[in-house]
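chain below, 351 aa
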Amino acid sequence: MTERLAPAGPVDEAPTPKAPRELTTREMGVIWLLLAAAFVVILNETLLAVALPVLQVELGVSESAIQWLTSGFMLTMAVVIPITGFLIQRLSTRTLFATALGLFSTGTLVAATAPGFEFLLVGRIVQATGTAVMMPLLMTTVMTLVPPKDRGRIMGRVSIVISVAPAMGPTISGVLLNTLGWRSLFLMMLPIALVMLLIGMRYISNISEPRALSVDLLSVVLSGFGFGGLVYALTQIGESVGGDIAGLLIPLGIGLVSLALFVWRQIRLGDDALLNLSTFASLNFSLSILLMMTSMMALFGTIVLLPFYLQGVLGLEPLAVGLLLLPGGLMMGLMGPPIGRALTGLALAHC
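prediction:
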């Protein structure tokens, strides 16, 4: 009996695994440009921290009123940030970048030429609108472009921006206040923002295709009252100690009720929600957000309150106050890259 041989033919081989995607030079350039722009807008958040006692005297307003230059900034960001998720999907990267830096530059110009407190506050609010768009745009771009194996390293660089920029704000502010006056705080930022806007319009590329989406207006309203009410209530805690309990409880109640309705609305809308809250089902994500909130509250609370104590009680000069606030933020920034690399190593080890 003759043995039948199988016909010769191509032998199936195991598919060769694809090499991890690497960031292109152009993509890395977009990330560096967004990091630089984010550094500028975040630096601006705390630039007035040391200047608040000086502005209180020069503009002739009360201590509670002058703090609205910081509180109003944060309140505006709390209202605008929830909407940026929709804007990132609806508009191109270049359009959003131009919008963010355009608003920031406009607000800076208004603040630099402000004849009084009211116009200065308006300038800060416009600045905050641009800042609120820039930060989610940076985070979304990083998570879209950067491969998982490099995300820890790149996010370490992002942490430098988030921590070092607000820490440097009081120091730079102290130097300028001692030499050129409070308007120089904005006149210094304006040309930098405009140059970065021009560079971005020339070199930044779109990382995703805009989609024709509709926004749920009720969600926008509820998020504004919810996040805005909570932030406003927090700013009124100091006033409530003096007896104005209604000024605290009313916005706090509006904020909590609106936020509860907002959460219910997002769950009901599902995929069409303004904010996808399903990520909070992850315990690691929720704990990370809680820890970041706590650290940012400690950082910004210290940066805002210490200048009043150091200048008003201890009688220190603005430059000395700025230098005292610098080391903590710098240490946070220096720890960012090694922590990012360590997290990347841990993630790859568990893959």
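Confidence is low (pLDDT under 50) at residues 1-6, 11-19. Residues 148-179 form the longest helix (32 residues).
thats it, cya
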